[in-house]
Amino acid sequence: METPQAPIGLRPPKRKACMLCTRSKRRCDKSAPQCLRCLEKGVVCRYPPSRRMRLVEVDEDDSPPTKSYTPRDTPTTTTIPTTTIPSPSPSTPTAPSPSRPRFLPVGGRDPLNNHRWFLDPDSFTRLHRDIIPDPNLAYGLSDSYGEETLPDFIARVQGWLQTWSGTGHSPLIHRDLYRRHMPTSMQDAFTSLTSYHAMTPATKATTLRIIETRAAALVASHTHDLDTAGITMVGANQDLEPLANAVVMLDTLTHLARTQALLSYALIRLFDGDIRARAQAEEHIPVLDAWAAQMLDSARLDCAAAEMLGLPPHDAGAGAVQPTSNNPFALPHENENTPAAHAAWVLAESVRRTYLTSVLMLAVYLTLKRGWTMCPGGVACLFVAGPWDAPTAHAWRDAVRSVAADGKVQFLLMQSLETWRVFEGVAPAEVDAFGKAVLAVSHGLEGVVEMWEAGGRALVSGVVGVC
Fold it and tell me: 172 exposed, middle or buried (CB, 10 Å; 0-12, 13-18, 19+)?
């Protein structure tokens, strides 16, 4: 008599060898949370996530405008033609009615009953809007977009870095991100930003030379990652196992710190006006692009590994973000630990914001320089005000619950390519500074005003933003 087997969809996924063992072509015992070889070496053990099929129920009445998105397998070249984007169907920005399904954050987890709502691996997936490139089109932005929009975005990001170096908190770098440990790369970036904002005409040349030296040293210290991974972007459908070569050797916080540091140097040197500084910063554009992608992939791998570990419940008062492994996202699956969840959320949201800021900054620079750019794509992030600026972990939890209870839960983690939803369901005062910057660069300064006045139903002329 044959033993009955579980349906295919209910069978537990078969675990592959960990990434370090795969890279070194050694036998892996596949034990959790760490294999024996990684445990003996004292290194981070990461397993590639299993491939899953997701079934999502969609209400046709709430489907977005006619747009399609593709994973970031191959960058898409985009120009700024003057075509018309179809507007979303009219709707009233009120709380969801019983007949209309309530949108959830990317990943489909409700913050009201799942404290790990921000840790779905899919929330770290990069998407692109399908646009047919036409390199022969002349550079030009539509009237509703306005040529002042692109410099405005750069000025906002520069202001965030200056605010961080002066107060320790900004829409890009959270006050708690480096509270326990600040990597050397960010220590150098912090002192460089402080020196740059305090420089005089007499000290400008010296300050730029110091920044040049630190940027070069930062890139040189990670050349092995570029040699291994190249500068290509990784798509959502690509097998994650080969990413071990470029991602597994660094933890997510180190990925984040080096990307933020290089972003800081790039913002100074690309837009300072110094010819030498700009020329040298342009050489690091592919590096920043690659590091941003690797950072996002590292966070995605950590989330997938935490999902597979199946950690047992832990004491809610333990206070540790890493209860059984080096994974920063290894939170207990049942009991909520607010300080640990807040620390993990700060890291996760910082990764998403840093990635989006980096690729948008590069896209804006290249658009200003030559009139077109590679489509930067989008990633999920926070758009609503409250959680990011919450002064404590418990204030953050209350802010998240307040947003969810108010029927705006989808804006806690929303795909940045779907910003038209913001105009339908959120008032301008309810959007945080980072979200407003993304809206402005996506729709134009004047376009944002028009969209809000029309409740998201206005037609915006031209390709939305730089993508």
Answer: buried
Return d(Cα 15, Cα 18) in angstroms, integer.
Answer: 9
Place of tokens 């579980």: 6
Q: Which residues, 6+ apart, have CB-to-CB distance to 393 below 8 Å?
A: 338, 339, 341, 342, 343
Q: Give the CA distances from residue 382 to residues 147, 255, 328, 438, 460, in Å, rounded to whole numbers and listed in that order.
A: 26, 20, 20, 11, 23
> How many CA atoms does the CB half-sphere of 262 hold within 13 Å?
31
Q: What crossing angle do the helices spanning 252-271 and 338-370 adopt, rounded to 10°?
A: 30
Asked if 410 contacts 105 with a C-beta cutoff of 8 angstroms, the reply is yes
Highest-confidence segment of 82-86, 203-207, 413-417: 203-207
Phi, psi of 431 (to 5 degrees): -100, 135
pLDDT digits (tens, 9 = 90+) for 92-151: 333 433 333 345 565 556 677 777 889 888 889 888 765 433 333 333 344 446 678 999
Report phi then psi at 84, rounded to 5.
-105, 130
What local confidence, expressed as pLDDT, does residue 107 receive?
A: 55
On whether the CB atoms of residues 130 and 341 are closer than 8 A, the answer is no
| Residue keyed to tokens 């399908």 | 130
- Using alpha carbons, select from 253, 316, 340 the residue that is nearest to residue 44: 253
